[in-house]
Design brief:
The chain has 301 residues and is mostly helical. It has two domains: 2-41; 64-296, Orthogonal Bundle (MetI-like fold), CATH 1.10.3720.10. The protein contains 13 helices and two strands, in the order αββαααααααααααα. Strands 1-2 form a two-stranded antiparallel sheet. A hairpin with a 7-residue loop joins strand 1 and strand 2 (53-54). Helix 1 (2-41) crosses helix 13 (269-293), helix 2 crosses helix 13 and helix 3 runs parallel beside helix 7 (156-184).
Length: 301
């Protein structure tokens, strides 16, 4: 009888391994192996076609003495740590409204989530037209109400805020849906108990609802920060080829854009891999800090 149980147990585990094999292989082939390959390639000089030659830490020395890296790190951090809190704050308000059971809630969920099913390049192309300084709808509206109409795309002072605005707009839907799921998972009995204790709506929201949503907020902040530090498609669509240079490119270039520039514009895979390693370390540091301090503000039931 015991032998039969052992056989069934092993058979079940065999099928479990079969089902998780595609995900494990995909992560290994497209995730783990490229990481180690990039680390090794960062210590070499390679144009993508010729012979690979070992150069040690020369690529890192060149990158850290390049002024472009300063722009890329600054823009990446400003973009990420501006976009994420604004997106989460607005998404929290939207999800709270959707949770109130208003009419046409289902339609609004679809409308808010729609930007997430559209390719980022398509979103950026549409916004390039909307933000056009001459014929864009945004500037036409601003002029109509008597407000100044800036050059959103051609002014170095406004190109990064434009990218932040687009990212916030396109990210609200996904974040709001996740937060809405968290809101619907809160027991109504907790709200009833709080009302019986004399708490008003504002107190209930900030002292009970928000703390109970911190697991969802922690997940979204972690994922959004990682995605923000890896932004590329919207930036590339807005500023085009890197070899054009100029203040517009410097004001909006990010780390991933710099990786692309070094790899495919200048065909220097070694320096591109070195910058990829720098980005990897930055993301790891931020993620470790987030997990380190989650106990101070994330409340699990």
């Amino acid at each position: 009888m015991e032998q039969k149980k052992k056989f069934v147990f092993r058979k079940e585990w065999k099928w479990a391994y079969v089902f998780i094999a595609p995900m494990v292989l995909g992560t290994l082939i497209f995730g783990i192996i490229p990481i180690f390959f990039s680390i090794g390639l960062s210590l070499t000089n390679w144009d993508g076609l010729g012979e690979i030659t070992f150069t040690g830490l020369d690529n890192f020395k060149k990158i850290f003495t390049d002024d472009k890296l300063q722009y890329e790190i600054r823009n990446t951090l400003v973009y990420t740590f501006t976009t994420v809190p604004i997106t989460l704050f607005i998404s929290l308000g939207v999800s709270s409204l959707l949770n109130k059971g208003l009419k046409l809630t289902g339609m609004f969920r679809v409308i808010y989530f729609l930007p997430n099913v559209v390719m980022p390049v398509a979103v950026a192309m549409v916004w390039r037209w909307l933000l056009n300084s001459k014929v864009g709808i945004v500037n036409i509206f601003l002029k109509a109400i008597g407000l100044p109409a800036p050059n959103w795309i051609s002014d170095p002072d406004f190109i990064l805020p434009s990218l932040i605005m687009i990212s916030v707009w396109s990210g609200i839907g996904y974040n709001a849906i996740i937060l809405l799921a968290g809101l619907q998972g809160i027991s109504p009995e907790l709200y009833e108990a709080a009302k019986l204790d004399g708490a008003n709506g504002r107190q209930i929201f900030w002292r009970m609802t928000v703390p109970l949503l911190t697991p969802s907020l922690f997940f979204l902040s972690t994922m959004n920060i990682m995605n923000g530090m890896r932004v590329f498609d919207i930036v590339y669509t807005f500023i085009g080829k890197a070899d054009q240079g100029g203040p517009i490119v410097d004001a909006s270039r990010t780390l991933v854009f710099g990786i692309y520039e070094r790899a495919f514009s200048f065909m220097n895979m070694g320096e591109a891999s070195a910058e990829a390693v720098i980005l990897f370390i930055m993301i790891m540091i931020v993620t470790v800090v987030q997990f380190k301090f989650q106990d101070k503000w994330v409340f699990y039931e």
